[in-house]
Each structure stands twice: as structure tokens, then as C-alpha cells.
Amino acid sequence: MRALLALLLLALPAAADPAREATGRLAVTVTEARPNCTAVLVAPHRALSAGHCVGRAPNPQQKFFADWQPDGSFDAALPVAGFERVEATPLLTPETRDVVVIDLAPRADAPAPLPFGPAPAPGETVRVISYPRNQAPRDTRCTVTARSDAILSLDCPATSGMSGAPVLVETRDGWAVAAILTARSGQGSLALLVDDALAGD
Description:
The chain is mainly beta.
């Protein structure tokens, strides 16, 4: 009986994870051979990533591959239609503006975006979903070790491909975006706080 129950549980589809579905690989190709970053949907056709993940002008070949997997599968591929570098918001200043708002080509199969959440305090645990280069997607829990204005210090190490990863906080309505990972810092990483001013209309 237990063996049958175990088989039935294995046959059940995996529970949907809106945070994973809204996070994707920002790259010019679906393969792992080229450099990539991570991005997260915060509006139906708008994503956030690290500013250094885009060039001086939009690349028509660059796409947001939602919920990309190492076997090359993904939920949706949304071409980058344009972007705007964040100059300043109530949280970000010109000195801490390595965040970019990416406009994506409309697609009916685009995943649902994530809402914005409150800034975590030092000592709180956050979730970081990322796409390290040449590795499987990474879904980790990190601790906020410090905050200085709009900059969070995390104890999670950062590697190539993780720039642009969302730093998520858990709310009673689910996971929400609090910050964007932008840099390595010693054995940890740095993230910039963001808010719903970046979601657009």
C-alpha cells in the first residue's frame, strides 16, 4: 500500500511555483554557451535585471527565457524590445543605479509577474532564484547581513550569470521582489532595493 501511495505521489504534477515561473534567463541564445544574466517579471511585459546585463542599445537577439532549464526547455521566450536604465527612485540614487527596466515583446503565454515586497531587515532570510552560467538554475535561501540605504549585503556567494537575480521576501500572499542582485562582495553578494515605481503603468 505504501509503495502504491509513493508511486501515486510521484505521478502527481509538481506544484506551481509563481516565483520560479516569473524568473528567467536573460541571454541571446537558449544554450549555455553564451554569457547570460537573470531577470524577473514585475509587470506583464516588463522585467528587472542588473544594469550591466544590457549593452548601450537593445539587442534584438536577446530574450528573456522564463523558467529556463538545463535541457533547453523554458515556459516562454520573450524578446527584449527596449530598456531603460534606472536613474533614481525613492530608494535608488545615481550612485546605486545598476538596475535596468526591460520592456519585453508581448506574448500571450508570458508568465504572471511578481509583486514588489517590503525591504528585508538584517538577519532576515530571503530567497534568491538565479541562473549561474553553465549550471542548473539555483534556488537558495540567504541571510541579509547588512543594509546601507538601498544596498543589501547577503551571505550568498555570486557567480557569473547571477546578476539580475531577484531577492524575494515571503509575504502572506506569496513571494515578492524586494531587491535585485547586482554584484559579488567578498564571500557574499550585494543587491539593490527596488519598489513598485519600476513596474510602470
